[in-house]
Structure formats: C-alpha cells, structure tokens
Amino acid sequence: MLRARSLVTSHRIITRTYATAKSPHALVFLEHKNGTIESASLSALTAAQQLGGSVTGLILGGSDQVPTVLERAKKLKGLSSVLHSSAPQYSSLLPEIVSPLLEKLLASDSPYTHVVSAHSSFAKALLPRVAAKLDVPAVSDIISVSHDSSSNSTTFSRPIYAGNAIATVRAPSSLPLKFFTVRSTAFPASPSDDGASVALEEIPPVEVTDAPTQRLKTELTKSDRPELGVATRVVSGGRALKNAETFQATLGPLSDVLGAALGASRAAVDAGYADNSLQVGQTGKVVAPELYIAVGISGAIQHLAGMKDSKLIVAINKDPDAPIFQVADIGLVADLFEAVPQLVEKLKQ
User: Fold this and answer.
1) For residues 157 and 252, what is the distance between their CA atoms, to the nearest angstrom?
2) pLDDT: is 55 or 16 the higher one?
3) Which of 29, 85, 116, 252 sits at 20 to 30 Å (Cα–Cα) from 71?
4) Residue 22: C-alpha distances to residues 25, 43, 112, 177 (Å)
5) Which of 229, 269, 246 is nearest to 43 (CA)?
6) By CB neighbour count within 10 A (0-12 exposed, 13-18 middle, 19+ buried), where does 102 fall?
7) Per residue in 213-233, pLDDT tens?
8) CA-CA distance, 201 to 80, in Å (whole number)?
9) If DSSP codes are grouped into helix, strand and coil, which group holds residue 236?
10) 91 phi, psi to nearest 5 deg
C-alpha cells in the first residue's frame, strides 16, 4: 500500500476565516434523472455519513424536476436537511452554471466542512472547478473515508495505478474545506426511511448570464436491460466479437436470459461494436456486480480496473494465457461462438 503525503494548500493565502474545530457537516450534491436520485449519489450519501456529523443534500433542477425529487429525498436515511433550487438554467446542468451557486453556499460563514459527490462525469468537472476557485484541493474516486474529530483531519483511501495500489491521503485541519468524490461501488446506496422527515430549504439560484458553454443536445442510448452502473449481473464482450452485429447477436441472448446489463471492453467500443456508454474500465464505468461474465476479453489492465471487484468473475476465452484468467473465479477456455450459445440453451432449460 502506498501512503501519499498530506494535502497542503497552494502558495496563495486563503483569506476566509473558519472555526478551527468544526463538527463535520457535509454538503452532498445529489444528482437525479427522471425524478429519481442516482444510485451513485446515494452511495456518496453513505460515505458522507461516515464522517460522523450532519449531512445536507443539495438538489438542483428545473421547476418541473425538483418537486418529484424532493419527495424522494426527504425520506432518505442519513440526511439532516435538503437545500434545493429551481431555475431554467438548472434544467440541464453545466459546471459553469452550477459553480457560482456552490461558491456562494461555501462562503466564509458557511457551516460546511466537506463537499461530497459521486464520481460522475458531471461531478468530476464541477467539484475540482469549485475547489480550485476556493483554493483548496479535491480528492477523487475515494473508496474509504474516516474523520478524526480530535485533530479535525480526514483520511481517505483511493485506488491508483489502475487499482494496483491504494493511496492513503490525509486532509489536515488546516484545510477549511475538504472536497471529495466517491466511487459508488465502494459504498452501499443509502436506503429510504418512510418514517423520516427531512427539513427542506429553498435557496435562490445564482443567475449566470455569460456562461462560456451551453448544452446543445443530449443523446441517450435506450435499452430494456438493467443500467450498467448498478446492475447485479453484467455480461461484457471484447474485440473478439468481430463486429457490432455479432456482438449483439452473441451477447444479447445471454444477457437477456440472465437479466444482465450489457458491457464492453474499450477495444470493443473503439472498434464500434458497442456504444461508449457500455464501456467498462478505467476510462469507462467501474462496476462491481454479483456476477460478471467476460466474453472474448483478454483482460488488459485498463479493463480489469473497472471490474475486478465483482463478486464472481467468469471468463470465456480461447487463449489459455489470457490475463483475464488471473482474476477470474471461473474460467472456460473455449471458442466463444460455440460456448455462449450452448450456455444460453442450458440457462433456458
């Protein structure tokens, strides 16, 4: 295990004044889609609770989005309160639009000691941006967190070198704010509590009139299969599937009979076999399902970083020396075009 040096502030002096011994109070950014809070954000909420203090949620969206999300949020276990803001500019969130609001919330008289979010594409652009403007560092993709109230320091662990080493990072008490994003597979989703009644507080939006970017359109890949990031079963294919048609024809029946999500290696995505939203790996989605079936995937380190925490890994590959067999719990050396159809028939019986 590698141990990283304690984080320190940059050479500029932070002029804000903060209490030196605040009790932990985390602000968790809760992302949502179609009226439902993202599972990854619920995992971030669980991580925030491990700090041992109060937890406030933050929900942003259009006026037609926020009310439905609030009904779900106010029943979440572990939340002390929920801040929410509705405005047309928040209908499609952009870091440049949201960051002024976060900066305002985290002003010198702010009660918050930690800012937390899932390690999502949006949060990876938002949190470091706000942290840089406030002149504090951000820790990304953490898999554990603990807070020492006596020293007011927070210790994180996070994977580095494609998951082959774990860095321990300590954010000392000299940091007025501690930003971190959470790897969703490392923390369970925070459950709902029908008996809970969280206080809701509306905050005014911060209008941004000169944003340097704007969202033109959003393209979504529709599928009847489970969502890859939260599925309990995943079937992934590699470049050995030859083309997009063969990829779907071979793996589609297997994923359907298992009720599994469909994934792909980076090589398969780059070759055009599957949409990039299905990519599993260091530069794609990190998954940890109960069952992960790797079909025609050699097991490059980039791919292993995204799935090696799966509970049961099954590999099908005709190369007995493929690296995937080193992490697989069950390995089958066979031609996938023969083995997969036979497996589907057996599962149907």
Assistant:
1) 37
2) 55
3) 116
4) 8, 24, 9, 11
5) 229
6) buried
7) 888 887 776 777 888 988 999
8) 11
9) strand
10) -65, -40
